[in-house]
Hydrolase (Bacillus gobiensis), 274 residues
Amino acid sequence: MQTLNCTHIKTIKGVNIYYEHYENAGKQSLVLIHGFLSSTFSFRRLIPLLKKDFNLIAVDLPPFGRSEKSKKFIYSYKNMAELVLELIQLMNIKNPILVGHSMGGQISLYAAKQRPDLIKKVVLLCSSGYLKKSHPSLIFGTHVPYFYLYIKRWISKQGVLKNLSNVVHDRSLIDQEMIEGYMKPFLDDQIFIAMTRLIRHREGDLSTTDLKSIETPSLLIWGEEDKVVPIQIGQRLHGDLQDSRFYSLKKTGHLVPEENPNYVSEKIANFCMI
């Protein structure tokens, strides 16, 4: 039986984690994991298409969205993956499929590598890949007092509209709702302090050797016009992951859940039945 969306907060690893549970008892569970500078909002067009047939959990990774902007949490990919894994276990979810967009794809791969026994499959939507750890000079800079103001200034200079123009191919999709939705989390200065720690702690993406060791079946969907994570990254991931399927979308940028939700939901549904 399907129920209405419920929002929740759980304390995991000492951090308050916000998530949305679109409960659908007896159905396959999907855990939606957003990307860098994003939140559960990025799945707003995908969720309505999936919630009829799946038990959905959409998570705000800290420090983004409505999750806590902790000054103590170690913002490594390993820790973020552990948060997702612990949430899955606390909710007693069996054999979930992780759906990760951009950085969320990398978190999904970390989770699959850490606990392949818990994760049934992984869906990677323009997933980040092969990024190195931050440059030592940048890491050093994060220890400078008020470094967070530099991050705030940089993001403000870029502007939400400019960032959105960079991640979607068809700019006519950008409306006021989208601008406000992606801007809202950055109205709290605490996020910039937490992002300083994320820059310091992020250990880099999984290596080719690590990727080749992952046996979890994966589905990769890419926008051919992706300027953030070019399609060549997706093709390389496809080659390194043992059991993967790859699809690309013409006239589509980085924000595939927003740009082509019907295609993405159809491919996810088909992948779940394999």
